[in-house]
Fold Archaemetzincin.
Amino acid sequence: MYRVLIVKITSIDRSVINEITNHLSQLGFHVDVLSQIEHINISYFDWQRSQYDAEKILEYVSSKFDKFPYDAIIAIGEIDAYARGLNFVFGLSTKKFGTVFLVRLKNDFYKKKCNFELFIERVKKEVTHELGHTLGLGHCSNPTCVMRFSNSIAEVDNKSASFCEECRAKLNINNKS
Protein backbone atom coordinates (compact mmCIF):
# COMPACT_ATOMS: atom_id res chain seq x y z
CA MET A 1 0.00 0.00 0.00
CA TYR A 2 1.36 3.40 -1.00
CA ARG A 3 1.83 5.93 1.79
CA VAL A 4 0.79 9.50 0.94
CA LEU A 5 1.35 12.70 2.91
CA ILE A 6 -0.88 15.72 2.31
CA VAL A 7 0.78 19.07 3.09
CA LYS A 8 -1.30 22.24 3.31
CA ILE A 9 0.52 25.30 1.93
CA THR A 10 -2.40 27.59 2.83
CA SER A 11 -5.35 27.31 5.14
CA ILE A 12 -7.81 24.78 3.71
CA ASP A 13 -11.22 23.90 5.06
CA ARG A 14 -11.10 20.64 7.04
CA SER A 15 -14.00 19.22 5.04
CA VAL A 16 -11.94 19.52 1.85
CA ILE A 17 -9.03 17.66 3.46
CA ASN A 18 -11.44 14.99 4.76
CA GLU A 19 -12.91 14.48 1.27
CA ILE A 20 -9.42 14.09 -0.20
CA THR A 21 -8.25 11.61 2.43
CA ASN A 22 -11.47 9.57 2.18
CA HIS A 23 -11.25 9.44 -1.61
CA LEU A 24 -7.60 8.38 -1.66
CA SER A 25 -8.26 5.80 1.06
CA GLN A 26 -11.06 4.31 -1.04
CA LEU A 27 -8.61 4.03 -3.93
CA GLY A 28 -6.29 1.96 -1.72
CA PHE A 29 -3.80 4.55 -0.40
CA HIS A 30 -2.73 5.15 3.20
CA VAL A 31 -3.05 8.91 3.75
CA ASP A 32 -1.64 11.15 6.47
CA VAL A 33 -2.09 14.91 6.72
CA LEU A 34 0.58 17.22 8.12
CA SER A 35 -1.24 19.09 10.90
CA GLN A 36 0.43 22.48 10.50
CA ILE A 37 0.36 24.73 7.44
CA GLU A 38 3.66 24.84 5.55
CA HIS A 39 3.63 28.48 4.45
CA ILE A 40 5.38 29.18 1.19
CA ASN A 41 7.68 32.11 0.59
CA ILE A 42 6.17 35.25 -0.93
CA SER A 43 9.17 35.37 -3.29
CA TYR A 44 7.44 32.56 -5.22
CA PHE A 45 4.70 35.05 -6.16
CA ASP A 46 4.94 36.83 -9.51
CA TRP A 47 3.45 40.27 -8.93
CA GLN A 48 3.05 41.01 -12.64
CA ARG A 49 1.03 37.84 -13.22
CA SER A 50 -0.70 37.81 -9.80
CA GLN A 51 0.13 34.10 -9.63
CA TYR A 52 2.58 31.82 -7.85
CA ASP A 53 5.36 30.05 -9.70
CA ALA A 54 4.38 26.37 -9.47
CA GLU A 55 7.89 25.17 -10.28
CA LYS A 56 9.39 27.11 -7.35
CA ILE A 57 6.75 25.75 -5.00
CA LEU A 58 7.37 22.19 -6.20
CA GLU A 59 11.12 22.68 -5.79
CA TYR A 60 10.58 23.95 -2.23
CA VAL A 61 8.29 21.04 -1.30
CA SER A 62 10.78 18.57 -2.78
CA SER A 63 13.69 19.94 -0.77
CA LYS A 64 11.73 20.46 2.48
CA PHE A 65 10.13 16.99 2.56
CA ASP A 66 12.79 14.92 0.80
CA LYS A 67 13.60 12.82 3.87
CA PHE A 68 10.00 12.12 4.87
CA PRO A 69 9.23 8.36 4.65
CA TYR A 70 6.33 8.52 2.18
CA ASP A 71 5.86 7.21 -1.35
CA ALA A 72 4.21 10.48 -2.37
CA ILE A 73 3.87 13.95 -0.88
CA ILE A 74 1.17 16.26 -2.23
CA ALA A 75 1.14 19.96 -1.29
CA ILE A 76 -2.24 21.67 -1.63
CA GLY A 77 -2.93 25.39 -1.58
CA GLU A 78 -5.73 27.87 -2.07
CA ILE A 79 -3.69 29.75 -4.67
CA ASP A 80 -3.44 30.35 -8.44
CA ALA A 81 -0.23 29.15 -10.08
CA TYR A 82 1.51 28.95 -13.43
CA ALA A 83 4.40 27.04 -14.96
CA ARG A 84 6.80 28.08 -17.69
CA GLY A 85 4.97 28.33 -21.00
CA LEU A 86 1.50 27.93 -19.45
CA ASN A 87 -1.04 30.54 -18.35
CA PHE A 88 -1.97 28.43 -15.34
CA VAL A 89 -1.72 24.92 -13.89
CA PHE A 90 -4.11 22.96 -11.70
CA GLY A 91 -1.08 21.10 -10.35
CA LEU A 92 2.48 20.08 -11.04
CA SER A 93 4.45 16.96 -10.10
CA THR A 94 7.73 15.13 -10.18
CA LYS A 95 8.64 11.70 -8.88
CA LYS A 96 7.37 11.55 -5.26
CA PHE A 97 6.30 15.23 -5.01
CA GLY A 98 3.20 16.96 -6.31
CA THR A 99 1.26 20.18 -5.92
CA VAL A 100 -2.40 21.04 -6.42
CA PHE A 101 -3.69 24.61 -6.69
CA LEU A 102 -7.34 25.08 -5.79
CA VAL A 103 -8.31 28.55 -7.03
CA ARG A 104 -9.13 27.61 -10.64
CA LEU A 105 -11.09 24.55 -9.50
CA LYS A 106 -13.77 26.81 -8.02
CA ASN A 107 -16.75 27.99 -10.01
CA ASP A 108 -16.46 31.51 -8.63
CA PHE A 109 -13.14 31.87 -10.46
CA TYR A 110 -15.18 31.56 -13.67
CA LYS A 111 -17.84 33.99 -12.39
CA LYS A 112 -20.38 31.22 -11.89
CA LYS A 113 -22.34 30.31 -8.79
CA CYS A 114 -20.19 28.23 -6.44
CA ASN A 115 -21.12 24.57 -6.20
CA PHE A 116 -19.29 22.88 -3.33
CA GLU A 117 -19.92 19.32 -4.57
CA LEU A 118 -18.49 20.10 -8.00
CA PHE A 119 -15.49 21.83 -6.42
CA ILE A 120 -14.80 18.79 -4.21
CA GLU A 121 -15.08 16.44 -7.20
CA ARG A 122 -12.55 18.57 -9.10
CA VAL A 123 -10.18 18.62 -6.13
CA LYS A 124 -10.35 14.83 -5.81
CA LYS A 125 -9.57 14.46 -9.52
CA GLU A 126 -6.61 16.81 -9.49
CA VAL A 127 -5.11 15.41 -6.28
CA THR A 128 -5.47 11.88 -7.66
CA HIS A 129 -4.01 12.96 -11.01
CA GLU A 130 -0.92 14.55 -9.43
CA LEU A 131 -0.57 11.56 -7.09
CA GLY A 132 -0.48 9.30 -10.14
CA HIS A 133 2.39 11.37 -11.56
CA THR A 134 4.33 11.19 -8.28
CA LEU A 135 4.09 7.41 -8.50
CA GLY A 136 5.39 7.30 -12.07
CA LEU A 137 2.25 7.41 -14.21
CA GLY A 138 2.17 9.55 -17.33
CA HIS A 139 -0.89 10.96 -19.04
CA CYS A 140 -3.43 8.39 -20.17
CA SER A 141 -5.33 8.30 -23.47
CA ASN A 142 -8.45 6.83 -21.82
CA PRO A 143 -10.93 9.76 -21.87
CA THR A 144 -12.41 8.89 -18.47
CA CYS A 145 -9.18 8.08 -16.62
CA VAL A 146 -8.09 10.53 -13.94
CA MET A 147 -4.65 10.53 -15.60
CA ARG A 148 -6.06 12.13 -18.75
CA PHE A 149 -4.41 15.54 -19.33
CA SER A 150 -6.66 18.51 -18.48
CA ASN A 151 -5.98 21.90 -19.99
CA SER A 152 -9.34 23.39 -19.01
CA ILE A 153 -11.92 23.07 -16.27
CA ALA A 154 -14.26 21.36 -18.78
CA GLU A 155 -11.63 18.67 -19.34
CA VAL A 156 -11.35 18.18 -15.57
CA ASP A 157 -15.13 17.82 -15.34
CA ASN A 158 -15.22 15.25 -18.16
CA LYS A 159 -12.90 12.69 -16.57
CA SER A 160 -13.51 10.46 -13.58
CA ALA A 161 -11.80 10.65 -10.20
CA SER A 162 -10.39 7.13 -10.58
CA PHE A 163 -7.59 5.39 -12.42
CA CYS A 164 -8.56 3.29 -15.42
CA GLU A 165 -7.86 -0.43 -15.30
CA GLU A 166 -4.53 -0.03 -17.12
CA CYS A 167 -3.28 2.71 -14.77
CA ARG A 168 -4.41 0.73 -11.70
CA ALA A 169 -2.43 -2.23 -13.04
CA LYS A 170 0.67 -0.06 -13.47
CA LEU A 171 0.32 1.07 -9.85
CA ASN A 172 -0.58 -2.46 -8.75
CA ILE A 173 -3.73 -1.32 -6.94
CA ASN A 174 -7.03 -3.15 -7.24
CA ASN A 175 -9.56 -0.85 -5.58
CA LYS A 176 -12.11 0.91 -7.76
CA SER A 177 -13.99 4.04 -6.75
Helices lie at 14-26, 54-64, 116-134, 153-158, 165-171. The chain has one domain: 3-138. The first strand starts at residue 3 and ends at 8. The longest helix spans residues 116-134.
